Amino acid sequence: MLVDKEIDQKYLEYGQHLTIGVVGKVSCGKSSLLNAIFEKTREDKKFEVAATSGTTTKSQIHEIGPDVTILDTAGLLDCNTANSEKTKKILSKLDLGLFIISGSADKAQVDEYKKLKENCEVFVVFNRVDEYDRKKKALDKVIEQWASYLDVDANTIYRTCAAGYDDDDEGDLDLRVQDLQAGIFKYLQNKKKLVLLAHLMKKKLQHAMAIIVPCVLLCSGLSLLPLSFVSITAAQVSAIAALNYLYHGKWLSKSELWFLAPSIASGAVGKFGFLAIKSFFPPTIYIDVIAASVALSLTASILVAVLIHLHKGLTLDNAFKSAELQDICTLLYKKIAEELKNASLKDLQSKEFWTNMLHRFAESLLDTSATDEVQKH
Ligand SMILES: Nc1nc2c(ncn2[C@@H]2O[C@H](COP(=O)(O)OP(=O)(O)OP(=O)(O)O)[C@@H](O)[C@H]2O)c(=O)[nH]1
Ligand SMILES: [Mg+2]
Fold first, then answer.
1. 216 and 365 part of one domain
2. Are 219 and 364 members of one domain?
3. Single residue among 135, 157, 188 that ends a domain in this structure
4. pLDDT (tens digit, 9 = 90+) per residue, 148-204?
5. Using CA positions, which residue lies closest to atom 4 of ligand 1?
6. What is the per-residue DSSP string for 76-131?
7. Looking at residue 42, which CATH number applies to its domain?
8. Contact yes or no for 330/268 (Cβ under 8 A)
9. Are residues 83 and 176 in the same domain?
10. Of 74, 132, 167, 258, which sits with the fewest C-beta atoms within 10 Å of its C-beta?
């Protein structure tokens, strides 16, 4: 079946496994940074942090989610390192490398950096910037020296701080990792592997929007093609699969999801008549902006309804029978239609416009308890 093939292709677009290599001298802060990237507190940290050096001399391989592996090592060049066979194998599979440096530039690190770079895209991360809080100019100079040793542009070096994860630390955490985190998210989004990592993050709404909005925009374009039904369904099914992975860490089969989008939408389709139905059929006779905006709104309502369902901790088992999901979808469809009355064509195609609107709707429905809102309307 044509749709089957399309969905298979879409599924394949999402990576199956993610491997990140973190390389840097002993005590430069690799474990602390990993905790910070994964939004951990001191109490629930995932990676052991120690002030005394030499605690982690071997390469460590952390399997930290259903599909994420992290190689954490003080050096790649030392062949006597325990786990070296395993390390070599993982090296060849790396999706991304984080090369962590700190303190004054050190030529001895250059070969380590080159070795990592042979295997994958590498972000250079200068950690412990707090040590330079009272000497900002010195920080720029040190980073420039590192940049020239490693032969990279100084502006591409991330500046981070991940202080305070030691068990006996009494102060607050000092975390400055937003830029690095955003860089990692963006890179993995392009590789279609972000959801594997995002599943392990606490803040899910932002990542859900990164799944929903591209699908919504894709559908607006697709509704102008003759095969819109097939392509819209394939895009919706794979977005629902990705949302489910984000919350539950597993991929559902196509057959489990196949009827979900149309059944969730059926309420809205019934209520809003032919305009809504039109988006489910190829607009072979005439094509207009209304058809595109209906496809957009309907797709957005279905996906945000699924997001709200998952965010409340529910699964998608038997979700196609859920009247509440349908009601939320219908309500969202109405809210979106109202908002679109004042939107321009440019808005309809804008990622920011959809992200802001859908994020707002999702948050308000989650706050006020979706069922209450549904009953009001
Ligand atoms: N001031 C400051 N200290 C940091 C920072 N990052 C980590 N540390 C401290 O540095 C020490 C070592 O941190 P770890 O995260 O264990 O470093 P590591 O690179 O994983 O060390 P090994 O696994 O032993 O190689 C700990 O006392 C951390 O609290 C930082 O950004 N600033
Ligand atoms: Mg460590």
1. yes
2. yes
3. 188
4. 999 999 999 999 999 999 998 989 999 999 999 999 999 999 998 999 999 999 989
5. 163
6. SS-TTSTTHHHHHHHHTT-SEEEEEE-SS--GGGHHHHHHHHTTSEEEEEE--GGG
7. 3.40.50.300
8. yes
9. yes
10. 167
